[in-house]
């Protein structure tokens, strides 16, 4: 069987085992989260042996693919391979400067990047703890804010989310890698209607897109739909309602499946969005949150007339249970 070499150690691969599975089985410290090829936390660089197959580079930028980077969770080697973590230049030092509860389950974390960290609001970054634990979180802030704002939902048994909620306070050191993701505002068509819809902390990138659009003087309608099972799953309602009051072309609509309160619509998010928007052909759409719902909304928007090139989506996947 092939073997994988990592940090001067050699590990025998089992039948149909990925690089990530082999390294974790042997206790190697490698960042990882979703283990599904979405979050890019387990990014590695091939430095010897087999070159990464296309399946292990799906979703990576052309630059990363051309320089031998791959997702360890998607790479099942057919021959010996040597891998390393990405270049240190891709990882920047950070310090938590502020933490605030946005709801009973969501905390706003603001991180100051101590090295140059270029991003678009709405993209996501991999947050790395000193022990190698890593998770991906979307960025709600603008580069001009001077910090990287993350919305962290507490996950039952989640190592990173519970650490950020309960232990990591102001002054805590961590690292950021990235950014990645397709959900960010692109100037050039200021009159185009924008549809922003998501569930849970999928709101974070949508807030980033909304704020960027306003900063660029976007004049077309901007509709933001935030969905949850019940009102307790929503957050930032007052802030977003105030933003909508200040900008006449912005509409904020909370949506819940049960127990709606004043100002909320009741129903499945995809049904509400399609009903309210009507024909989405002229719209640019951003969809974030639960993977199943993201895929459902994206498909329904396309079937209703939206061009696939005008639909930008990032699904959120929880980390693996071993983390």
Question: Notable features of this structure?
Answer:
3 domains, 7 helices, six-stranded antiparallel beta sheet, Rossmann fold, Elongation Factor Tu (Ef-tu), domain 3, 20% helix, single chain, 17 strands, Ubiquitin-like (UB roll), 323 residues, alpha/beta
Care to describe what's here?
The structure is a single chain. By secondary structure, the protein is α/β, with parallel strands linked by helices. The protein folds into 3 domains: about 5-85, Ubiquitin-like (UB roll) (Roll); about 90-180, Beta Barrel (Elongation Factor Tu (Ef-tu), domain 3), CATH 2.40.30; about 195-315, Nucleotide-binding domain of ferredoxin-NADP reductase (FNR) module (Rossmann fold, 3-Layer(aba) Sandwich), CATH 3.40.50.80. The chain is about 20% helix and about 30% strand. The protein has 7 helices and 17 strands. It has helices at about 20-25, 60-65, 160-165, 205-215, 235-245, 270-275, 290-305; strands spanning about 5, 10, 45-50, 70, 80-85, 90-100, 105-115, 125-130, 135-140, 150-155, 175-180, 195-200, 220-230, 250-255, 265, 285-290, 310-315. A 6-stranded antiparallel sheet has the order 9-8-11-6-7-10. Helix 5 (about 235-245) links the parallel strand 13 and strand 14. The radius of gyration is 20 Å and the shape is globular.
CATH architectural grouping of the largest domain: 3-Layer(aba) Sandwich
| Structural class determined from secondary elements | alpha/beta
Q: What does the main sheet amount to?
A: 6 strands, antiparallel
User: Helical content, roughly?
Assistant: 10-25%
User: What's the number of structural domains?
Assistant: 3
- Unreliably modeled segments: none
Name the helix and strand elements from N-terminus to C-terminus, one letter apiece: EEHEHEEEEEEEHEEHEHEEHEHE
The CATH superfamily of the largest domain is known as Nucleotide-binding domain of ferredoxin-NADP reductase (FNR) module
Q: Give me the CATH fold name of the largest domain.
A: Rossmann fold
Query: What's the β-strand tally?
Result: 17
Task: State the assembly state of the protein chains.
Answer: single chain
Terminal Cα span: 27 Å
- Strands ordered across the widest β-sheet: 9-8-11-6-7-10
Shape: globular
Instruction: Please compute the radius of gyration using only Cα atoms.
Output: 20 Å
Supply the CATH class of the largest domain.
Alpha Beta
Our count of helices gives 7
| Mean pLDDT value | 91
Strand content: 25-35%
């Amino acid at each position: 069987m092939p073997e994988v070499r990592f940090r001067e150690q050699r590990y025998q691969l089992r039948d149909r085992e990925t690089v990530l599975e082999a390294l974790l089985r042997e206790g190697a410290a490698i960042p990882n989260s979703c283990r599904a090829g979405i979050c890019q936390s387990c990014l590695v660089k091939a430095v010897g042996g087999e070159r990464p197959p296309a399946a292990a580079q799906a979703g990576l930028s052309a630059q990363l693919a051309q320089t031998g980077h791959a997702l360890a969770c998607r790479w099942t080697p057919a021959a010996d391979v040597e891998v390393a973590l990405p270049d240190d230049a891709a990882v920047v030092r950070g310090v938590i400067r502020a933490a605030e509860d946005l709801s009973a389950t969501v905390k706003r974390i603001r991180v100051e990047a101590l090295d140059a960290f270029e991003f678009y609001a709405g993209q996501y970054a991999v947050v790395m703890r000193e022990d190698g634990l890593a998770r991906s979180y979307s960025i709600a802030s603008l580069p001009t804010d001077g910090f990287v704002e993350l919305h962290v939902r507490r996950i039952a048994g989640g190592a990173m989310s519970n650490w950020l909620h309960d232990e990591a306070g102001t002054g805590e050191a961590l690292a950021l890698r990235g950014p990645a993701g397709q959900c960010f505002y692109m100037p050039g068509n200021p009159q185009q209607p924008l549809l922003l819809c998501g569930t849970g902390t999928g709101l974070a990138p949508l807030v980033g897109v909304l704020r960027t659009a306003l900063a660029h003087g976007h004049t077309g309608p901007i509709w933001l739909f935030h969905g949850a099972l019940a009102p307790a799953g929503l957050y930032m309602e007052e802030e977003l309602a105030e933003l909508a009051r200040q900008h006449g072309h912005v509409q904020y609509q909370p949506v819940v499946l049960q127990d709606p309160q004043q100002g909320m619509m009741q129903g499945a998010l995809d049904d509400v969005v399609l009903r309210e928007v009507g024909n989405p052909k002229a719209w640019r759409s951003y969809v974030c949150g639960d993977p199943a719902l993201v895929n459902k909304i994206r498909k329904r928007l396309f079937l209703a007339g939206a061009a696939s090139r005008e639909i930008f989506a990032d699904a959120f996947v929880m980390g693996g249970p071993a983390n």
